[in-house]
Every structure is written in C-alpha cells, then in structure tokens.
Design the sequence.
C-alpha cells in the first residue's frame, strides 16, 4: 500500500492550486479516493462522516452484480456452443472462456467511453469526479444482447451519460436510470440490432445458420421454448446479465443485507408482476384473443418473474436511489406499478417484448410525482391531527 | 426621420434573431414545425423559405395597417393577412415543387398557427414602421431557418445517411451489405428533433452566458 501511497504523495505537488497541472486535480482526487479515505474534514457545523461514501456504495452494487456477470459470461458460451451443436464436446472452462472474451470488450467499451466523458465534464465544470458511472458502466453491458456492435455500445453510452445525466447536472440529478436510457436509445435507434432472432447468440451475425429468439420473443408468437428451470438458472438466450434469476437473487441478498438496495421496491415490483400475471391468466381463455396471444396470456404467472429482464430490472434498476421513489409508501406504489406495467407491456404489445425497460423508465418519470403526493398526504393527515392549544378553532 | 435604410439599428434587426434573440432557441416559438419537418433537409429548407416570406410580408402589411386596425379585433385582422399569404405560398409550392409540397402536407397550412408569425406581428409590426418590420421579418425568418437547417442536416445525415437526398454514407458500410454501419432510426423520430434542438440551445447558452436565466 505504501507504494501506491507514494505515487499519490509524489504527484500531489503538481496538481495543487497554482501548479501546472491543477486542472487535473479532480482526476488525482478521484483515483486517490479509490484507494484511500480522504482525511479532509468539513470546516463548519456538525457533520456525521461515514466511510460508506458514494464510491463504496457503488462498489458494493458492482459486487452484487458479479454473480450475474459470471453467469452471463458462461451462458454466452453455452448458447453459442449449443447453437452449433458442440455443447457435449466442449469443457466448462472453454465455454466460460468463450463467453469471457465476448463480454469483456463490451464492458471495456462501456467503461472507457462513460468514464472518459465523466472525466472530461468534471474538468470542464471544475467539480470532483463522481462515481455514479461505476454502476451504470457495468449495468449497460449486462442489458445488451451479446451481438450488439461495439460502436453502438459506445454511442449509446455516450448518449446515456451526456443526455441522460450530465444535462441534468451529473450524478444524483438524473431523472432516468442511465443504463436504461442507453438501452432504450439502442432499442429505438437500431431496432434490427436490438431485437429479433439474430442478436442473442454469439456468432449469429456472422452466419445465417444460427438464429435464436429469446423465450419472450417466442412466447409473443405463441411458442413456449423454455423450461422453467432453464429460465431460473439462466440457460436461455437473452441480454447478457438478465438471464439467470438465481445469480440475480444472490446479488439481491447482498444488496438487502448491506441496506443499499430497497427491499420494498424489489418486493413490490415482484408482487406487481405476479398480480398482473394472474389477471392475464384469468383472461387467457377469452375468444377475442389471437391464438398466439392466448398462449402468452396463459403462461403461469410466476414465469413472468423469471423470464427476460424482469428480475434484473426489479433488483438492480428499479432500486436506483436517484431515479426511484424516495418515500416509504411511494416506494410501494412505484415498485408495484413497475411490475404491473412490465408484464402488461410485454404480453399485450408483442412488439415490445422487453416491457421491463419501458415500465421502469415510465415510472422513473412519475417517481417525483408519487413522492409529491405521498408527502402532501402526510402533511394533510398531520394538519387534521393538529390542534391549536389554548384556543378554540 | 432621415435614417439610412441600412443603419446600424436596422441591421441589428436582421442579425439579432440569428443569435441572441433567436425565435426557436431563445424566444421558444415555432417549436412544433421545427420538430415536424426536419427529418430531411429539403422540406426543412422549403419550410424555412415559406415561413420567412410569409413573416416578412405579413409584418409589412400589418405595419402599414397598424394605425387603422381597431385594437379589439387586431388578432382576427392579423389572421386574415397571414392566412391569405399562406394560401399564396401553398399554391406556389403546389405548382412548382409538388413532391415537397406533398411531403410538407398540413404543415404549410399550419404556418398560419406558427407562433413566430403571430408573435412578431404582436411584438414588433404593430408598433414599428414598414421597413423595420420587413427587416425584422426577414431576420426572424432567417433565425428560424438556421435552426431548422442545422437540425435537418443532422437528422438526415444520421437518420438516413444522406444530405439533401444524396447518399453520403457509402452503401458498402451498411450491415445489410456486410459492413458495420446502421442508420440511427431514432433520429427520424420527433423526440430526437427535440433533443437536437435542446443540444443547440445548450451549445448556444454555454457560448453566450447572458442568455442563461436564473
């Protein structure tokens, strides 16, 4: 550790006020706090300091994402070798290595572009480098199909960081979850590369022989192409990090134990999805539905929770403390509506099989409104209770 | 009043709307048509010219009539003048550039409700002499045109890979032809026009800090 400390001590004179490289001082501070705790204390008033700062909170979320990342890498290889019929003859590590080499470039591009823009903005605006992108930079690769071209990832990341975040004032000021902004941008800008049957399995762009739809895409056309256990463990085609419900739940435990993710939002989102699934089941026999729709309406309600991005969104996206609701009852409403909308969109409008993304973005938009009315409700309730002492009303 | 035709004050009427009092980015007028007709450059240019002509002549006519229009019915008088000019423009477009006229469809007719025109008549032509009003109309029309053309240029280039209808991005770049590139489908959707206008406002205000409201 002394060796690293020396580097920072030696470079410090160059970035001090008035020194030649002062404009780089936030870069220096940014890397310093990555390894050490700042000793600066506030000069006025009473403040409570805690070592769980933004950087460490973000680090914890990334840690919670690790199971999903590893499982995503394995599944990337698994789907590839399954598609070319060589699954039996390929070893576990070979499968994992293939996935690793596919996923790693996407992660590098996402972090490189996003952090680059954050650094540039921090220098221009003269504020500290904020760590909000540590999580977004990991979420972005996990919500993309594996065959998305790298330059599209770069464009989407730049769009999400600049239009989704910096425009509103940077970390902590954004209205929408940046990773979902990136995905929504790609979804509407390059639909051919973000949906359909040619993007979910590594290698499918290169050869026409490999095509594979996601279970949701199949279900929308009335075909059930998954088993519940595959969907739970994550051995189905889909965006890189979203397939394995098990890996996501391991991350969820970490988030709840450390108190970083809101269990209220997670629980209410899942409840919302289940309720909507049940409602759709009740209408499954209706004669006014097309045949494909009847199949999709009829799948057991809990399948909605393990398919597609539902669980990933509920655990890692809906709980984003910046763009989600802040009040306790607000969180219940917010999460519940996300669940309802996600399942509603994915089943009733088959053109948008990924309803979770749209549902979360929509509810992000309404989160401040929900909070406003929750707070107003509290104020009204208290006013009713309040009596003016010593006077008659 | 023996002021030269192109005095400094009059030239300011022409140049101000291009920057510090731009009708779209500063006065925030005429946003609707700026979003609707800018998916390609050609309709954007035709629209800009049409609005400029209507605006300049409506300004002149209202300015000539300004002392005779009863205050209480001035909006109706303004509308009659604008509507007549828009019908003229519409007929000319139909006669000479029929395909563009079809592309613009209702938006030529909607010039009548373009806030820039009503706004300039109310704010300027009713209180100024015809020549100044004419310059104000040309200036504001040009300010509108600049934004429309910038937005149209980027939307057509990124959304369709062409400029003015000419393919700029080589066909062999496209994924369907074995390349790597794909047109950005979102650029031709209206939300992206709004975001592009927003970026222009952002750039303009970071260069001209006086425009930032507190």
Sequence:
């Amino acid at each position: 550790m002394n060796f690293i400390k020396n580097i920072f001590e030696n470079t410090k004179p160059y970035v001090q006020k008035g020194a030649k490289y002062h404009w780089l001082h936030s870069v220096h501070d940014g890397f310093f706090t990555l390894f050490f705790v700042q000793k600066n204390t506030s000069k006025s008033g009473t403040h409570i300091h805690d070592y769980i700062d933004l950087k460490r909170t973000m680090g914890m979320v990334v840690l919670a994402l690790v199971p999903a990342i590893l499982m995503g890498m394995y599944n990337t290889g698994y789907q590839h070798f399954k598609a070319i019929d060589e699954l039996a003859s390929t070893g576990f590590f070979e499968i994992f290595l293939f996935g690793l080499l596919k996923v790693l470039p996407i992660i590098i591009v996402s972090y490189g572009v996003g952090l680059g823009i954050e650094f540039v903005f921090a220098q221009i605006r003269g504020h500290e480098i904020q760590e909000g992108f540590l999580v977004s930079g990991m979420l972005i690769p996990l919500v993309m199909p594996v065959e998305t071209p790298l330059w599209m990832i770069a464009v989407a990341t730049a769009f999400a960081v600049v239009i989704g975040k910096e425009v509103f004032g940077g970390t902590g000021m954004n209205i929408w979850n940046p990773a979902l902004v990136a995905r929504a941008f790609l979804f509407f800008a390059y639909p051919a590369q973000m949906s359909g049957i040619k993007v979910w399995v590594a290698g499918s762009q290169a050869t026409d022989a490999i095509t594979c739809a996601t279970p949701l895409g199949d279900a929308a056309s009335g075909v059930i192409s998954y088993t519940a256990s595959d969907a739970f463990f994550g051995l189905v085609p889909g965006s890189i990090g979203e397939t394995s419900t098990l890996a996501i739940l391991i991350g969820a435990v970490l988030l709840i134990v450390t108190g970083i993710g809101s269990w209220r939002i997670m629980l209410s989102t899942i409840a919302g999805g289940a309720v909507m699934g049940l409602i759709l089941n009740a209408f499954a026999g209706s004669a006014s539905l097309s045949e494909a729709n009847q199949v999709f309406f009829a799948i057991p309600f809990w399948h909605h929770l393990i398919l597609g991005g539902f669980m990933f969104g509920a655990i890692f996206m809906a709980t984003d403390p910046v763009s989600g609701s802040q009040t306790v009852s607000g969180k219940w409403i917010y999460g519940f509506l996300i669940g309802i909308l996600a399942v509603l969109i994915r089943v009733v409008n088959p053109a948008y099989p990924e309803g979770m993304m749209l549902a979360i973005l929509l509810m992000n938009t309404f989160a401040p409104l929900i909070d406003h009315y929750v707070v107003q409700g509290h104020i009204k309730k208290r006013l009713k209770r309040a009596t003016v002492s010593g006077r008659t009303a | 009043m023996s002021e030269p035709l192109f005095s400094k004050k009059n030239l300011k009427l022409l140049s101000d709307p291009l920057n510090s009092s731009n009708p779209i980015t500063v006065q925030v007028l005429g946003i609707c048509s700026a979003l609707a007709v800018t998916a390609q450059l050609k309709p954007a240019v035709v629209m800009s010219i049409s609005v400029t002509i209507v605006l300049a002549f409506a300004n002149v006519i209202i300015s000539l009539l300004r002392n005779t229009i009863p205050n209480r019915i001035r909006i109706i008088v303004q509308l009659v003048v604008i509507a007549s000019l828009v019908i003229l423009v519409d007929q000319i477009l139909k006669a000479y550039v029929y395909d563009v006229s079809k592309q613009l469809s209702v938006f030529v007719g909607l010039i009548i409700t373009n806030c820039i025109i009503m706004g300039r008549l109310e704010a300027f032509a009713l209180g100024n002499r015809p020549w100044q009003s004419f310059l104000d109309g040309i200036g504001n029309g040009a300010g509108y045109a600049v934004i429309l053309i910038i937005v149209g240029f980027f939307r057509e280039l990124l959304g369709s890979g062409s400029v003015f209808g000419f393919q700029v991005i080589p066909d062999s770049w496209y994924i369907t032809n074995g390349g790597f590139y794909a047109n950005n489908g979102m650029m031709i959707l209206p939300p992206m026009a709004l975001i592009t206008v927003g970026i222009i406002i952002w750039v303009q205000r970071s260069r001209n800090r006086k425009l930032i409201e507190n």
Chain B has a mean pLDDT of 86. The interface with chain A takes residues 175, 180, 182, 184-187, 189, 195, 198, 202 of chain B (CB under 8 Å). Chain B has one domain: 19-211. Residues 19-211 of chain B form one domain.
